[in-house]
């Protein structure tokens, strides 16, 4: 099991004092937060239990440092999911072992999507996923299920073309509401850590009965490779990361853009604030699933989140996390708006009907978030 020596902790303290690393660790943070910061920055190796050699990276920090440690990841760090949807005719079926996640295999290594001739289930559909920003996750974790479900409109009762449903997950025999992940597939911050350790780094963590941990593997390193306290430390560190700060521009066009953001309908899904346990959380999301893709879209499906359904991503700090959409298909904010289809087609049309100067104002507002 991975352990840190007093020397490691001293080096962390020196780095923080110099302002050279882990810039977001709050002063006076708890020991758990400090240990979690160290784990987040740690380059794991095979001796620690790091997964197969073709994982995207060897640390949390490697995929989450844009524009600062804990932020988003570049398109080069996209993860790939594999599945089978019978050539688009359905139904969607997972491959043996799951959807594949963060595997980038070198040319000489056979990929998970390759199966011997005659295999009953070859992959015929692929989907990229962008590493999301982790800033402000502690505040998102504080938003209760009822706050999220209060904004659902599964039957489009107000006839605005926008539905919105919460991701309901069965955990330990009970129902919980998803908050994290592109398909809102993770309900709690500690679950997010367990899931990331397993799928992004191939590290085992203790089985707490919630179903998000990988309790054992066959790599020869004693399981679990991270302890329950280390999982808690990582969750504490992520929970300590503050949300991105508003730019604070005094340009009157930013205020104009904010009004347009509401009037064209963006704020229906990108709700400016949700109430957390300690007050309003200005995340610009409803944390609900929406279908943003055309009817012909082929992608990954999960129970409660069909292909094309994605959680409304928070917009705080959006100017610094390009490219956009779940797979990085949009290079800039204008491109991201243009790629909103499905339920958001009407809102996109409203934006496109604006004058060029009004469109510019709305983009300036987004860039100030």
Distance between the termini: 41 Å
CATH architectural group of the domain at 252-368: Orthogonal Bundle
CATH class value of the domain at 252-368:
Mainly Alpha
Tally of DSSP β-strands: 8
Which whole number gives the mean pLDDT?
A: 88
Give helix and strand order, one letter per element, not per position. HHHEEHHEEHHHEEEEHHH
Q: Given the C-alpha coordinates, what overall shape results? A: globular
- What is the CATH homologous superfamily assignment of the domain at 252-368? Cytochrome c-like domain
User: Largest sheet, if any?
Assistant: 2 strands, antiparallel
Strand order of the largest sheet: 1-2
Number of H- or I-type helical stretches? 11
Q: Name the poorly predicted regions.
A: 4-31
> Radius of gyration from the CA trace?
21 Å
| β-sheet strand percentage | 5-15%
- The name of the CATH topology of the domain at 252-368 is Cytochrome Bc1 Complex, Chain D, domain 2
Structural class comes to alpha+beta
Helicity range: 25-40%
Report on this model:
- This protein has helices at 6-18, 31-41, 60-63, 137-141, 145-149, 189-201, 228-240, 252-263, 333-338, 345-352, 356-368, and strands at residues 79-83, 125-129, 168-171, 174-177, 274-276, 279-281, 289-291, 309-311.
- It contains eleven helices and eight strands.
- Helix 2 (31-41) crosses helix 7 and helix 8 (252-263) packs across helix 11.
- The strands form four sheets. A two-stranded antiparallel ribbon has the order 1-2. A two-stranded antiparallel ribbon has the order 3-4. Strands 5-6 form a two-stranded antiparallel sheet.
- With 369 residues, the chain is of the alpha+beta class.
- It has a domain at 252-368: Cytochrome c-like domain (Cytochrome Bc1 Complex, Chain D, domain 2), CATH 1.10.760.
- The model is unreliable at 4-31 (pLDDT under 50).
């Amino acid at each position: 099991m991975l352990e840190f020596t007093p020397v490691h902790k001293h080096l962390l303290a020196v780095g923080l004092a110099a302002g050279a690393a882990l810039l977001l660790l709050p002063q006076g943070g708890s020991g758990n937060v400090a240990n979690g910061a160290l784990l987040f920055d740690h380059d794991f190796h095979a001796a620690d239990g790091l997964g197969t050699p073709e994982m995207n990276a060897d640390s949390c920090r490697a995929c989450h440092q844009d524009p600062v440690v804990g932020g988003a990841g570049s398109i080069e760090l996209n993860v790939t999911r594999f599945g089978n949807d019978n050539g688009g005719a359905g139904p969607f079926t997972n491959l043996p072992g799951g959807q594949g996640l963060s595997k980038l295999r070198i040319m000489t290594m056979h990929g998970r999507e390759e199966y011997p001739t005659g295999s009953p289930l070859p992959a015929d559909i692929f989907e990229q996923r962008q590493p999301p920003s982790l800033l402000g996750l502690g505040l998102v974790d504080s938003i209760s299920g009822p706050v999220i479900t209060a904004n659902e409109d599964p039957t489009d009762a107000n006839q605005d073309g926008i539905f919105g449903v919460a991701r309901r997950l069965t955990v330990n025999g009970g129902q919980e509401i998803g908050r994290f992940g592109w398909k809102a597939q993770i309900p709690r911050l500690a679950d997010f850590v367990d899931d990331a350790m397993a799928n992004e780094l191939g590290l085992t963590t203790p089985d707490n009965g919630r179903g998000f941990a990988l309790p054992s593997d066959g790599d020869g390193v004693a399981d679990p490779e991270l302890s329950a306290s280390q999982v808690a430390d990582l969750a504490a560190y992520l929970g300590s990361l503050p949300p991105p700060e508003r730019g604070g521009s005094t340009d009157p066009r930013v205020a104009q853009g904010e009004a347009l953001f509401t009037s064209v309908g963006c704020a229906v899904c990108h709700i400016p604030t949700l109430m957390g346990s300690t007050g309003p959380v200005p995340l610009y999301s409803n944390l609900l699933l929406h279908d943003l893709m055309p009817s012909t879209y082929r992608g990954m499906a999960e129970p409660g989140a069909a292909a094309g359904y994605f959680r409304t991503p928070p917009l705080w700090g959006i100017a610094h996390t390009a490219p956009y959409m779940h797979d990085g298909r949009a290079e800039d904010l204008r491109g991201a708006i243009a790629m909103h289809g499905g339920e958001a087609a009407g809102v996109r049309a409203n934006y496109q009907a604006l004058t060029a100067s009004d469109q510019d104002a709305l983009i300036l507002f987004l860039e100030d978030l």
